[in-house]
Structures
1.
Amino acid sequence: MARLHIDAVSKTYGTEFAVREVSLDIADGEFLVLLGPSGCGKSTLLRMIAGLEQPSAGRIRLDGTDITDSAPQSRNLAMVFQSYALYPHLTVAENIGFPLRARRQPRARIAARVTEVARTLELSALLGRRPAALSGGQRQRVALARAMVRDPGAFLMDEPLSNLDAKLRSATRAELVALHRRLGATFLYVTHDQVEAMTMATRIALLDAGRVQQVGTPEELYDRPRTAFVAGFLGAPPMNLFPAVVSSRDGGLRVLSEGVDLALDITADSGEDTAVLAGIRPEHLRPDRTAGAVRGLVRMVENLGSEELVHLDCGSNTLCARLPRPAGLRVGDTAAFGVDPDHLHLFHPESGLRLTWREQSTPLRRIS
C-alpha cells in the first residue's frame, strides 16, 4: 500500500502545457480516478507518476520519499496499460511471473505467487494458454495479475477497460471494485468514461486542458459541481446550461431566461440584475401543468425503455427533461415543468465558477 503526493506538477512540450500545476494527495488504499476528455492530460500525469515521463516542474512523492527523478523500475508501482502489453509467445503463467523473473526471484517463490494471484483472479484454469487464446476480459485479468504478482504499493491503470465491449466492461468494473476492496491497495485509474468514474471511484479528480477542475467524491462532483465544465461533463444527458439573469422582483430573487422564471425563495432588496449561467439536471425537471417555472415546445422525445428524454425549445434555449415512461408528451406539445430551487446551479458566465447566494446578499458571491 502507498500514499502518493503530487505537488504542482507540470508537463510542457515546447511551449504547450499538457499538464499545468496539478497537486493531488492520494491516500493509502484509495481508489482515485483521473477523469476527463481526450487530451486533457490525465494519461500524461499517470505516466509521470509511473516514471515513464519526466515532469517539467513539480515533485512526486511516494510515502514521503521523493521519486520525481527515480527510474520506473525502482518505484513500488505497477502499471496496467490500455493494450495489456502481454508477451504473445509466453503462457499466462509466464506472463504473470515475468516481473519476478526479471528481479531474479527464486523459482519456488515465483510459482507460489503465480498460483496465488491466479486463484485470486480466477485464472488458474488458463495458466497454460497463450494470450491469443484468451478473450479480452481474460487478457485484462492477466495484465492485472502481472501487476499484482510483486505486491506493489499502488496500481496505476491507463484506461484498462476501453478495449472491452459494453457488457464485459460492466462486469469487469464490478470485479475491479471487488479486487480493490479485497487488496486494500491504492488504485490510480485513468478514464474518459464518466460511468466508470462514478461507479468505481472513492474520489474523482476531473481534469480539463491540463488543470484539475475539481476533486471530490462522485456525489460531490455530481451534486455540487465547482465549475460549469464539471456540471456539463458529468451526467447522461448532461446538465442543462443556459444564460440567465438573477433579478430582484417583489422582494425576492428570481432566475429569468427565455422560457424560465424560477423563484429562489430568498428575500432580497432591489438591486441590479446579475448575469449568470444557470444549470438544471434533466432529472430535476418535473411536470407541472399549472405554474411551471420552465415552459417550452416539445421538439423530440427519446424512448430509453424505462425512461424518456423530452427535449424542449424554450426560445433560443434547448433543455432536456428525464422522465419516467410514459411521460405523456408528444412532439409539438407545449410543456411546463417545475424545479426545486435547491436543484438550481448558478455559475459565473465568464469564468464558469460556481456562484452562491445568502439571505439579503446581492450580488451573487463567487466561489473560488
Note: The longest strand covers residues 16-26.
2.
Amino acid sequence: MYERRRVAVQALRDERIARAGVSVLLVRDDLVDPELPGNKWRKLKYNLVAAREQGFGTLLTFGGAYSNHLRAVAAAGRRHGFATVGVVRGEEHLPLNPSLAYAAAQGMRLTYLDRTTYRAKHTPEVSARLEREWGGCYVIPEGGSNALAVRGCAELPGEIDAAFDVICCPVGTGGTLAGLAAGLAPGQTALGFAVLKGAGFLADEVRELQRQALGAPTDNWRVDLDHHFGGYAKRTPGLDAFVADFRARHGVALDPVYTGKLLAGLFDLVERGAFGPGTRIAAVVTGTAPLDAPHGGA
C-alpha cells in the first residue's frame, strides 16, 4: 500500500563544477510522484502506517497559507482513505489561494488559528480545543518532521544508484537532513542549506529528531546558515538570476524557496573551493515551489 519509490539521478555538466574538480549529481526526488513529491512522501510514509495501525481515520496537521505540506497531506489522505484537517496559520481569506484551494479539492477541511494561538499550537490548551472541534485525529507536525519522517528520509541515500561523498538538501524543519544523515554509509556526510534567516536553532532540531528516531544523533552532518537569501520565501536578484540561468543551462526549474537556495549555495561553495578535488556531491531536489507563493515573507 505504501510502496517504495525509486529516485532518478542526473549528472550535471557545468564548467563551474568542472573547474573546481568536483562532480555534482541532481537527485530528482521531486519526480517520484506528481502529488506527493520527494521528501513530502518520505516524511508521510511511515506516519500513514502508524495512523492506520493506531486506528485513526483522520489526519490533522498544520501549515501556512502556501504550505506544500498541507497539500501533500490532503493528497495522501485522499489517496489512502483518510479524512484530513488542515490547521492554517492566520485568518481565512476568500477566495482561497491556489495552495489551499488544491488542499480543499482533495477533501481537506480547513480551520484557522490566529498567529498568537498558532504559535501555541502544541500546548495542551490548543490541542484540547482542536480535539473538541475535530475529534480524535492522528497529528502530524508542521512540515511533517518527526521520528517517523526521519525513518522515511533515511531510505533515500540507499536508492541513489551512483557513488557520492556528500549529500546536500535544503533545510526548513530539519527532518530531511536528519534522515539523510541517518541513512548514509561510513565516510559519507550530509550538508543542509538553511532556507530561514537566523536558523542556528536548526542544528538542535536535527539532533533532537535523530535522538527520537535513532536514540542518539549522528556526527556526519552540518547546516550551512549563509545562503538563505534574506529568509524564508524571500528572494534576491542574485538568486533569481541563478535560478533562471540554471534552467537555461540544465533544463531544470528550481523553486526559489528551497531548491534554488540549495543549488545557489552549493555552487557558491564549490566555486570558493569548499570541496576538495574529486569530491562527489549529490544534491537532492526535494520538491516543487508552493503554488503562487508571494515573493516575500513566510
Note: Residues 39-53 form the longest helix (15 residues).
